[in-house]
Here is the input.
Amino acid sequence: MNDTPLHVVGNVVDVPRQNRTSNGSVTNFRMASTSRRWDEETKGFVDGATLWIDVACWNELGGNVARSVTKGDPVVVVGNLSTESWESEAGRRSANRIKATAVGLNLARGWSDFTRPARVDRSAALAAPPTPSEETAPSEETPPGEELYRQRSTDYIGGEETLDETDSEVTSEEPAVPALT
Here is the structure.
């Protein structure tokens, strides 16, 4: 089957609704995405057409969306497009829907605090922990706590002196630029 993958940037226009089904749990919401373009004549942005679309988020994604997203939030939705059809008193009807594979808050429009849920390590019950070798055993020269990170790979070489000091609370001295709405 050929899926139609897409991503849509827009705003949530209703409160996400979580339901349990025989196939698992699903969270549904509707979103709107309005195109904008620069108009030379008016020297400003003008709104174009609005795409209104339903989004379905299944299982763990749906639970996380129900906890994190509310009406009015700017979101980025990635998923596959499908068309649902049904019969009604007015005749045959259809609607487009995105089966979401990822939903995120649009950080171009604000900031967020991310909380990662704790994961259960199921492999620990299946395999015995490896015996520490002499290479990984803490030495007297190892600072306290560092032995926990010896097995972990890094994406840099050179140690702490090569890393810049950073502070997530640091703000720029430049004035904030208002978001386009």
Remarks:
- The helical segments are 59-68, 123-126.
- The chain has two helices and six strands.
- The CA atoms of residues 138 and 147 lie 6 Å apart.
- The chain has a mean pLDDT of 79.
